[in-house]
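Hi W.,

Here's what went into the run:
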Amino acid sequence: MTARIVVLGGGVGGTLVSNLLARKLSRSAAEITVVDATGRHIYQPGWLYVPFGLEKPENLVKRERSLLSRKVRLVVDRVVKIDADARRVVLAEGAPLEYDYLVVAAGARLAPEAVPGYEEAAHNFYNAENALRLRAALYGFGGGTVVVGVADIPYKCPPAPLEFTFMLEDYLKQRGLRDRTKIVYLSPLNRVFTIETVSQMVTPLLEERGVEYRLFFNTESIDPVAKVVRSMEGEEEQYDLLVLVPPHRGAPVVVESGLGDQQGWLPTDRETLQVKGRPEIYALGDATDLPVSKSGSAAHFQAKVVADRIADAVHGKQPAAKYDGHVLCFLETGYGQATQLAFDYEHPPQPPRPSRFYHYEKMLFNRTYWYIVPRGIV
Amino acid sequence: MAVPEGISISKEIDARGSFCPGPLMELIRGVKSVQVGEVVSVLSSDPGSARDIPAWVQKAGHEFVGTFQEEGYTRFVVRKTR
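Here's what came out:
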């Protein structure tokens, strides 16, 4: 019998899991279908560079078909509902798809409406359109106060607002605007970054570069008229230009199918990556409620586990692969330097001193991503 | 040590082994997602949580119900009060 495997989402996780399954399973053993609403694959980490004119959005997109194995069928359509009891996925246009195994790699949705005032007042670099709008705002900026932070928790790529702050400081210096600009970085926690060792490393860098920071600032609302951002801890900060990572919520299909928690994240087993109570459904990447960073890196390592487990099950074996919480990512610290964070559930990161080496490694990864990640070379 | 009777936990988050975003970030997320008066619990294996979590709870003006030591991890219990 041919196993029907349906994968929702053509991002890092969905594409890699499909290609790995295509490699592990013969055509007679499995029929693999990816459903993606746009048919375009976006390399999201590249958006960080767009506001500074260091990257163009068109370089960050490729056709999903071009990244998938020929053994994988791509359906470009919107998923309306997962009918988990009937093991069926309902599409907006096409016929429903029945599955034996479902992989939900549907990512997260930006939810600017979740924070009052956000849509009118805040900039971000979390999609191509917004990154270009921020690029224009920075280009027209003549000095004042720039406030950088996050609008809500959780969000994709925890280091991104800190990286943006470092790159902004560098950019303003190059533009001759640094003397006329106050930069304020808002951290939701009692240090500038969640990982203590990283925080100890980067706090002196912020101080050296004259970047002010506020701790325990969890955004509650924004007043676009008074140009003030307020925190749930009862403090406020005045801005001329506000850059806040937008609120994130689970994919609409997860919410509408009644499978997610209050914010739409899928309750997922931290090791097997199976959706709780639904062993035939796997979740990976941003869609899960796991306590690991919402990042392409987490999706990348999780995809290998999901592919191993489904392939074993199709072959009639007991799945053994387990996700150990592994994530590997970079943190840009400005002036062409970066550090690297590698950790799992058992091992905290031991970041090296920022250097040009890690910046170039990140740049190399950004360029070679298309050839090495979706195909499962790394 | 068990959570005292009469404390009904509305949401429990397993943040054991979480370095990024980390147990405090998971707790803040949890507190945001429940109603005033409800209780959130977070499981942490990070020794730093013993300092970080009560500090935020105090700063944000919520009620710190307590710290409960379990085998290999700690349960932090917080009531949302505002």
